[in-house]
Specification:
Structural class: alpha+beta
Shape: elongated
Distance between the termini: 65 Å
Number of strands: 13
Radius of gyration: 27 Å
């Protein structure tokens, strides 16, 4: 009840204020200069606050909505997914001197073998017009004395459910970097005691950065598929800033010939 009353009072006062300023605008040509000078000062003070509200509102409303799950779905897609790292706000947005194994969020883990870590990671808010994902993931790599750096993403149970060799799994990535480097994606499929692996290099020089894993060339046992995960492997990351603006996965049956 108190909320309804507060909302009613706010709307009443807002309409009253609009009418009042409308009347003052109509009378501005006729009031004396002293009153007009005072009116101008009040109007400027009001405009400063209004401009601030409008500026902040325009910025926030232009950002991708937190929790948004808009995903590009190729024809025939039967499953699509965006990891939480790019969809929702993390409790701890960043880490410095990241250890050799660090869980960024459930299902997203950084691995490296540096003796001395000079790696920082941070979740950032996407703000570009082209961005669909609410958040991006930034890695700042300084001195790097290790042999590998990878981001491991665990795919949900739905990715493995009903998985067949006729399926194609696609990964779409939006990535930025300060200087060129190679990024590889390795799909891992655990079936029984075995793990099938398929490796693809991301075509970073192309407008559309995506890779497809055609399971027809795998030796997985369809009846024993347990889980899937993807390793994003960064080759030569030293003195570089890498921003993954978005990462999405989709699955579809291969077209029959």
């Amino acid at each position: 009840m108190a909320g309804l009353l507060s909302g009613f009072v706010d709307r009443f006062l807002h309409r009253r204020s609009l009418r009042r300023w409308s009347v003052m605008g109509e009378q501005a040509d006729d009031v004396d200069l002293s009153a007009l000078r005072s009116l101008r000062g009040r109007a400027r003070a009001l405009r400063r606050n209004l401009d601030r509200v409008i500026h902040i509102a325009d910025h926030r409303l232009a950002l991708p909505v937190i929790g948004s799950n808009i995903i590009r779905r190729p024809l025939g897609t039967d499953w699509a997914w965006r990891p939480e790292l790019w969809k929702g706000s993390l409790p701890t947005p960043g880490l410095a001197s990241v250890p050799g194994k660090a869980q960024i969020y459930e299902g997203a883990t950084i691995f490296h073998d540096c003796r001395r870590s000079e790696l920082t990671v941070r979740q950032i808010r996407n703000a570009r017009e082209a961005d669909i994902a609410p958040f991006g993931f930034r890695m700042d790599v300084f001195r790097f004395d290790g042999s590998f750096l990878s981001l491991v993403l665990d795919l949900p149970e739905e990715a493995a459910r009903g998985l067949k060799q006729k399926h194609v799994i696609r990964m779409d990535v939006i990535v930025e970097m300060e200087k060129p480097l190679e990024i590889f994606a390795r799909l891992n499929i655990k079936h029984g005691p075995n793990v099938e692996q398929i490796v693809r290099e991301l075509p970073l020089n192309e407008e559309e950065v995506m890779v497809e894993f055609d399971l027809a060339y795998s030796k997985m046992n369809e009846k024993r598929v347990e889980k899937l995960w993807v390793d994003l492997i960064f080759e030569g990351p030293e003195m570089n800033q890498i921003i993954l603006r978005d990462v999405t996965f989709s699955r579809r049956p291969r077209a029959e010939l």
